[in-house]
């Protein structure tokens, strides 16, 4: 999936994710933003919640996005970002 298609779907469904799981922000990053993802690639999404990222919220977002986008999704919370990865993610993140 290319970045334009992924971003369009994320924008359309962001309010649903906010209502169901307390999502306050989404950002696409990784190969999808660079349009270098292959057919077996997952989609990397930086997710911010309005409270703790409980298992129910985290996996709820993951499964909802996988159903929406039709491929594996790797949701990453800000807290889970490794310090060595943070500059790269922040530089290429495309916020929804």
What does this 3D model show about the protein?
This protein is an alpha+beta fold. It has one domain: Beta Polymerase, domain 2. It is built from 3 helices and 4 strands; from the N terminus they run H-E-E-H-E-H-E. A 4-stranded mixed beta sheet has the order 3-2-1-4, sandwiched between helices. Helix 1 runs antiparallel to helix 2. The longest helix is centred in the N-terminal third of the chain and has 19 residues.
For the structure shown, list the relevant keywords.
4 strands, alpha+beta, 96 residues, four-stranded mixed β-sheet, Polymerase nucleotidyl transferase domain-containing protein, 43% helix, NT_sf, toxin-antitoxin system, metal ion binding
Itemize the secondary structure elements and their pairings.
Elements: H1 3-21, E1 23-29, E2 43-49, H2 55-69, E3 73-77, H3 86-92, E4 94-95
Parallel strand pairs: 2-3
Antiparallel strand pairs: 1-2, 1-4
Helix pairs in contact: 1-2
Indicate the CATH topology: Beta Polymerase, domain 2
Low-confidence region ranges: none
The CATH superfamily turns out to be Beta Polymerase, domain 2
| Termini Cα gap | 16 Å
Task: Output mean pLDDT.
Answer: 95
Seen as an oligomer or otherwise, the chain set is single chain
Brief digest:
The protein has helices at residues 3-21, 55-69, 86-92; strands at residues 23-29, 43-49, 73-77, 94-95.
């Amino acid at each position: 999936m290319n970045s334009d298609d992924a971003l369009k779907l994320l924008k359309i469904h962001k309010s649903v994710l906010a209502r169901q799981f307390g999502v306050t922000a989404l950002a696409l990053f990784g190969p999808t933003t660079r349009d270098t993802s292959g057919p077996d690639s997952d989609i990397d999404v930086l997710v911010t919640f309005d409270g703790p990222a409980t298992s129910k919220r985290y996996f709820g977002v993951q499964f909802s996005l996988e159903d929406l986008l039709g491929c594996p999704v790797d949701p990453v919370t800000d807290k889970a970002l490794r310090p060595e990865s943070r500059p790269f993610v922040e530089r290429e993140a495309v916020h929804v």
